[in-house]
Design goal:
single chain; alpha+beta; Arc Repressor Mutant, subunit A; Beta-Lactamase; Enolase-like, domain 1; five-stranded antiparallel beta sheet; three-stranded antiparallel beta sheet; 12 helices; 10 strands
Length: 346
């Protein structure tokens, strides 16, 4: 009679062969149908000649080990969070995107301009459409973005358009209410002063400099320079360091996720935590620590500029999402965004 330790070793060895095959087929069926899977279904697909009874025994072992569960005694099994994690880490066969799929995604970035909001919104729509889940994009962290150009343009009496351009060409616009009218000559002087003062600084450094300069005695500056500092402060402080873009697909099953995604701050924290390391990350169920979305999975990837991680993008959807397709699609899109921001050919 085997000891408990020997039984555990035996089961683990089987998991590497027969058990792995059955778990992989079961999860694949579950992803295709979003429904429990029975032994008879698997017996028709498994390459080995195994009876439904043998497969039921293996499924019972997998359930005892925590990889599977079932709602009723007579029902088939579904993978647990542990089972899905094992599948994603060890069993899933990622399907490369087809040439048509790659070209379709690439074509969305072959447009002029670098309006960061437009690019990120388009990226969210791409992720939603191709994954049939919900597309998420955490926009670049502007704090580390290097300043290139700033300009204030008149719109109407008492209103200006402030334009911030980063060194990599990303643009941020903001309408400023100033309560007075400035002529073109005054605005030219203000623009020249701001560009001379902030060129080469990060947004974070430019903000600190404005606060420091503005805190000095107003008498040290003429009236126009004081206005320049005030306008710069209003523009630079108003730029969001991170913004979350959420895009839903038109697929019926994503409509139920609307309620779950109301708390954007929770998603922001999870996506922000992904900025610590480059590459693809997968959160299954409760791993994301999102409330109340423990029955959802999140697949993310970072996009960069040079050696700097700028932001994160990904998809959130049911735990039964097609990981074999979603993972390479998210990874490919993140690399495209990186190439776009670095002005590389796509």
């Amino acid at each position: 009679m085997q000891t408990q330790q020997n039984q555990a070793v035996s089961v683990n060895n089987l998991l590497n062969e027969r058990y792995r095959e059955i778990l992989s087929l079961l999860v694949t069926d579950y992803i295709a149908t979003s429904d429990a899977v029975g032994s008879r279904q698997l017996s028709k697909k498994i390459l080995r000649r195994l009876s439904p009874a043998t497969i039921r025994n293996v499924m019972a072992d997998l359930e005892e080990m925590g990889y599977l569960t079932h709602a009723h005694t007579s029902a088939g099994r579904v993978p647990t969070q542990k089972g899905l994690r094992y599948y994603v880490d060890s069993l899933v066969e990622k399907r490369p995107l087809t040439e048509d799929e790659r070209k379709s995604i690439q074509d969305h970035y072959k447009v002029g301009g670098k309006d960061i909001r437009r690019v990120m919104q388009q990226t969210g729509k791409i992720l939603a459409a191709f994954s049939q889940c919900v597309g998420l994009v955490l926009t670049p962290n502007w704090k580390k973005t290097i300043f290139k150009h700033i300009e204030f343009l008149p719109l109407s009496r008492g209103r200006l358009l402030g334009i911030f351009v980063s060194q990599n060409g990303m643009v941020e616009n903001r309408i400023l209410e100033i309560g007075e009218e400035l002529n073109y000559r005054e605005l030219e002087k203000i623009n020249n002063y701001c560009n001379a003062s902030f060129v080469g600084l990060t947004l974070e450094e430019a903000r600190e400099k404005v606060v420091k300069e503005f805190s000095k005695a107003q008498g040290e500056y003429d009236k126009l320079l004081s206005k320049a500092l005030l306008l710069s402060q209003n523009l630079l402080m108003g730029i969001e360091t991170n913004e979350l873009v959420v895009e839903f697909s038109t697929i019926e099953k994503t409509k139920g996720l609307m309620q779950s995604l109301e708390e954007k701050q929770q998603l922001l924290k999870v996506l922000d935590s992904c900025l610590d390391s480059a590459g693809v990350r997968i959160f299954i169920g409760a791993e994301s620590r999102l409330e109340p979305v423990k029955d959802l999975s999140l697949v993310t990837a970072t996009y960069t500029e040079g050696n700097r991680i700028l932001g994160t993008l990904g998809v959130i959807g049911p735990t039964s999402m097609d990981y074999s397709r979603v993972i390479p699609m998210v990874d490919f899109t993140a690399k495209l965004v990186t190439d776009f921001l670095e002005n590389k050919d796509i």
